[in-house]
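The methods section describes the discrete structure representation at length, but only in general terms. Each protein is reduced to its one-letter sequence and a matching series of backbone shape codes. I believe one specimen quoted in the main text would settle the matter. An entry of this sort, consisting of the sequence and the corresponding backbone structure tokens, reads as follows.
***
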Amino acid sequence: MSGNLLKVLCVDDEPRVLTGLERHLRKRFEVFTAPGGVAGIDLMTQHKDLAIVISDMRMPEMDGATFLRHARATNANAVRILLTGQADLTAAIKAINEGQIFRFLVKPCPPDLLSTVMDEAQRQYELVTAEKELLQRTLLGSIKALVDVMTFANPAAMGRASRIRRRVTAIAKEADVEQRWQLEVAALLSQIGSLSMPPGLAYKRASGQDLDAEEHSQAHAALKAANSVIAQIPRLEPVSQLLDHAMGFSTDPVVDPAMRRRIDVLRLGMELDELESRGSRVEAALDNVRNAHSHDAKVLEATERAITNSGEVLRRAVVPLAALQPGMVLDEDILTHRGVLIAPRGCEVTLSFLEHIRQFSGQLEKHSTVGVLEPRRAV
């Protein structure tokens, strides 16, 4: 089956109806069928890229409205269509309210009408997914640029944010976490509160040094205040929620399992980076975190895979400062000859980064080299 075809799930307890739908739709879509709501939910879990979900209303065990409500929670992007043999206003209202359906059709549905509705559903799906992708790319790109600039003001703190972003992105990919852009943005903004801290305190936090009670209180207040600002930005409410729970600002229960998984990934990434900042190797840091028994087992397994696979993606090299190129990641700090931090370990090399380094060329050794991580070249 061509990978270019959109995926459609048809759910009905009547085999002849499923056969008819599949026969009518298979030329244009990759069609999956399920004889009931439970089987339909299982298929939605396996195929998270479903574009359109069609469900009968009157089914044993689980009616169509209930199933479509689950479908909405599992795959919010999928366009939902309800079929019923009952022209029942009550059923239609229930389905619309609970499942937010796109269309309500009465069986038997004429083929021409079904084709028209499927055309509209396909356009709706493409519109929604394109808009979300554009939003996420634009938002993430803007925040990356913002953090890139802020790195010059506080290289230690923003370098830590960049390291956390790479770690949680790798873990989330291995754990098949949805809405990964939220994690990336949360990681990038996790240290923004450091900009309002005294320089000495910000540096101690970023380098993993112990803080006394007063310093801890001051840092906590700065980070919490920064996150309150993030919460006021449209589209960043879930990012603020992630940070609230990962940093311990909120202890309110989280109902959504997917959000709980994202919180766990972010918290784990932050804990690992703090331990590494204190001098632990990443494998030892993971053992330390695992022994605390405070994280989901599947997230820990995904983290171990991410750490193992990172060596397959990047290789370490030592290059002259003049040979730094965009896409490389610093594997050690860049310091002036007086020991002033210019760029921290974990910072990604960008064009603005290179311009920043050139401004300090007179304060660096002429033949200085730096350890970097760079993409492996294809053989």
Notes: The chain has a mean pLDDT of 86. The chain is about 55% helix and 15% strand. The radius of gyration is 25 Å. Residues 308 and 376 are 15 Å apart (CA to CA).
